[in-house]
Amino acid sequence: MDKYMQLAIDQAKKSLNENGIPIGSVLVKSGKLIASGHNKRVQENNPILHGEMDCLNNAGRVGSFKDTVIYSTLMPCYMCAGTIVQFKIPKVIVGESRTFKGAKEFMLQHGVEVIDLDLPECVDMMNTFIKNRPEIWNEDIGEL
């Protein structure tokens, strides 16, 4: 497995261990790890602190994002995809999109390369979380 996707999965597990939503993300620039993050909506009572948003927040100001790749264990939602498009992050590598379709088409329409690895570990982690905590998941995706 790609070492950066493994780091994103490790971040997702960290969130789960904190009683949060198991979504992790890492940002790589020119082949080097810049930042990592995980969904902290529950932990920090913050509705916009998705995994990708936490990761980008942790990255701080990096100048141009043209040589970056963002990894996420789950297909980014429209909020996170909008940030990816706004910052002109050219490539997103995703653990899975079976449990949440996200904004793949939006990103593709804006020139972002999207690679969906469809990893069983990511699918299983999300399916288990959704089964065990449907109220938290539905809140996260705006389905309450």
What is the fold's blueprint, element by element?
Layout: H1 3-17, E1 24-29, E2 32-38, H2 41-44, H3 51-59, E3 68-72, H4 78-86, E4 91-94, H5 104-109, E5 113-116, H6 120-132, H7 134-140
Helix pairs in contact: 6-7
What does this structure look like?
The chain has 144 residues and is of the alpha/beta class. 44% of the residues lie in helices and 18% in strands. The chain has seven helices and five strands. Strands 2-1-3-4-5 form a five-stranded mixed sheet. Strand 4, helix 5 (104-109) and strand 5 form a beta-alpha-beta unit. The longest helix is centred in the first third of the chain and has 15 residues, at 3-17. The protein is globular. The mean pLDDT is 96.
Distance between the termini: 35 Å
The overall strand count is 5
- What are the segments in which pLDDT stays under 50 over at least 5 consecutive residues? none
Helix/strand-derived category reads alpha/beta
DSSP strand content: 15-25%
Spatial ordering of strands, largest sheet = 2-1-3-4-5
In DSSP terms (H or I, runs of 4 or more residues), the helix count works out at: 7
Largest sheet: 5 strands, mixed
Q: Which word captures the global form?
A: globular
**Helix fraction?**
40-55%
Topology as H/E string? HEEHHEHEHEHH
Mean pLDDT, to the nearest integer, reads 96
Oligomer: single chain
